[in-house]
Amino acid sequence: MKNKNIFFVFLFLTACATQFTYYSTLKSFISNETFDKAEGIIEENKFKEYGEKNALIYWLDKGIVLHYAGKYEESISAFEKAEKLADELYTKSITEEASTFLISDNERSYAGEDFEKIFINVFQSLNYLLLGKYEDALVEARKVDHKLKTLQVDYGGKNVYKEDAFMRYLTGLLYESQNEFNDAFISYRKSIEEYETNKKIYSFEIPQDLLLRSLKVAKKLGFKEEFDEISSKYKLSYNYRDYKIDNTDGEATIFCYLGFAPYKIDHYIEVTFGEGWMYVGSIQVAGDAQRDVQKARRIARAIRSEEQFLVSFPKFVPSNNKVKYTVVNVYDEKNNKVVSQKTYLAEDIETIAIKNLEDRIAKIRIKAIARAAIKYALSREITAKLTEKSDDTTRWLVKKMVKTAAAATEQADKRSWRTLPKEIQMANLQLKPGVYNFELLFYDKDNNLLQTKNYSNIKINPGKKTFLISRCHL
Predict the structure, then answer these.
(1) What DSSP state is assigned to residue 88?
(2) Residue 82 and residue 133 in one domain
(3) CB pairs under 8 A, 24+ apart, for 449-456?
(4) Which region, left, alpha or beta, applies to residue 70 given φ > 0 means left and ψ of -120 to 50 means alpha?
(5) 173 lies in which domain range?
(6) Which of 245, 265, 296 is the last residue of a domain?
(7) N or C: which end of the chain has fewer CB within 10 A?
(8) Is there a single domain that holds both residue 62 and residue 88?
């Protein structure tokens, strides 16, 4: 028995260390933009590091790496599989929750965080956008809207992540690209409202381009009242009558993916058995789990309320990202710099991840504490049987080992979509029709240059939008 428990704990700790090494290697490939190696390591580890329980993470990692590599069609296929699997796992978790309550979260198939399932569609929309399939991109945008409305119902309207301002902004760009100005204006107004009101997520300034774009579309639609309201409220100092639109100019919109998303760690607390047992009454169980709870109730009467056990919850912490912002320089065919612009923050994925987990942490705490209390009680019976004819030293040793094994199985579920970017920044440039070369300079918080990227022969057409994606994961 001693050897089995030691071996089990050893395997668990080894698995944690192996996963850390795996993601360090994968992120290194992504940072160096050796995407063929990133794709290769994901495929090599489809059954080893991912396996059946982590199949969703496999498809998420595969989808985003293909997106980074510019293989948009292949990325679409991977994300479609991820979305289908996430839906299946969600349905399964609802139907089996009560009967599998005592099974550790780490032993279940990972079904994804709420925000992760939404970002499948965010990046699908960007995939289609880069392929010029605007209608398909809008379908993905509508899926985001539907999922967020469903979350509001699930959380009773108490969740922080209720709307996605960036996705509304992107939706407006898609509508505007197709000259559907009324729908574009509605999307821009909703985006402005979310950036302005939800400061728990969007603590940064409303993108200036979004405000100016709203004015332009309002002018096109003849919405004088709305134009004046936006101009006055946000101190833009534009007059409706004198505002002119140059339809001969083209636009370049650049999306910059910076850094890596946060990752989860264990957050431990000590709970007395008396306090922990109070949570047991708030859970619903069925099948074998119900029999185990009934057995634990009988054992619990003999356990002192002041005895303590450890409980672990997941907590997101920021990745070690250096990159802070980007400067976009644009040169004409004679190598003259025609414009330079610093990127602005449009989507803070790191904060969304942290706040989304906080939205459901109360439910996680109740479940984890109740399950730990039940297992603590059941471990007493196991210990008693194993030490029935043992001396004091053996009883103490077995008790410690059973407790250690139980703690190892109750580690927090630290799985997440770790290859997402930390944030999405943007730049929007008004340019005369022509062919340009783009230079992107990536800086850290101390204004040290980290990386330079060049994109040549970017064609700008009159009255049209050109979209470009770049990234820096340092």
Answers:
(1) H
(2) yes
(3) 450/322, 450/323, 450/474, 451/323
(4) left
(5) 163-245
(6) 245
(7) N
(8) yes
